Amino acid sequence: MATTSKQYKAIGEDLWKGRTEKINAELFALTYGGLVVQLIQDYEDYAEVNKQLEKMGYNIGTRLIEDFLARSSLGRCSDFREVGEVVAKVGFKSFLNITPAVTHSGIPPPSSRPSSTTQQSGVPGSSFILTLDENPLTEFVELPDEALEGGLWFSNVLCGVLRGALEMVQMQVQAEFLSDVLRGDESTEIRVTLLKYLEEEVPVGED
Fold it and tell me: Are 114 and 27 in contact (CB under 8 A)?
C-alpha cells in the first residue's frame, strides 16, 4: 500500500525526535552565516558565492543521503511526485526540523509531447516547489543592499544538498531558488526539476 502524506510526516517527526546528535539552532545559523561572509570576502562576486554554496551543498547531500536511507528505511519512490513528498516531509524534517509545503507541477507542454489524459510525474520535466515558512539558515540575517543587488541566494547550499542527495539515488535534478524572504519576497521557494534518471544510462562496455 502506498505511503500517504500523513505517514511521511509522521516518519519525519520520528526521525527528528530520535536524532541524538542535534546541534544548537543559533550556533548552526551563526556558523553558516560566518561561512557565507567568508566566501563573499574570498570571491568578491555574488554569482561565484552562489556557485560555491551550491557546490558545498552538493558534497553534503551526497553524504547525507546514506544516513537518511539507513535511518528512514524507505524504499524507492514510485514517481517524482512521491520524491517531493519524501523530501519535504521526511528529509527536511529529519535534518532541519522544518516541513516545507510542497506543490507538484506536471510536465511542460512541449510540441513533441504525446497527448495523454494521464499526468505523468516520473519523466523529465516533472517538478515540485518547496515553500519554506521558516528557514533555520537565515536566523539573525539581514542582507545588505549590495548583496541584494548582486543576486546573492543566501541559502543556496540547500539547492546543492537536494541535487547531491537525489543524484545518489539515480536522479539528476536542477534545484534553484525562485524567491527568498531575505530578498524582500513574500515567500521562500525552491523549485526542483527532474532532468533525467541516471539509471537509464548503461556504462560503456556493458549491455
Answer: no
- Radius of gyration, CA atoms only, the chain: 18
Q: Which three cell numbers stand for residue 94?
A: 529529519
pLDDT digits (tens, 9 = 90+) for 133-186: 999 999 889 999 999 999 999 999 999 999 999 999 999 999 999 999 999 999
The DSSP H or E segment spanning 173 is strand 171-179
Short-list 12, 28, 68, CA closest to 155 = 28
Q: How far is CA 112 from CA 13, 82, 109, 178, 197, in A?
A: 42, 26, 8, 27, 20
| Residue 21 confidence (pLDDT) | 59
Please give the model's pTM, rounded to 2 decimal places. Answer: 0.83
CA 191 distance to own-chain centroid? 8
DSSP line for 84-151 = HHHIIIIIHHHHHS---EEEEE-----TTSPP-SSPPSSSTT-EEEEEES--GGGTT----HHHHHHT
Angle between helices 46-72 and 157-167 (to 10 degrees): 50
**Sign, CA torsion 191/194/195/198:** positive
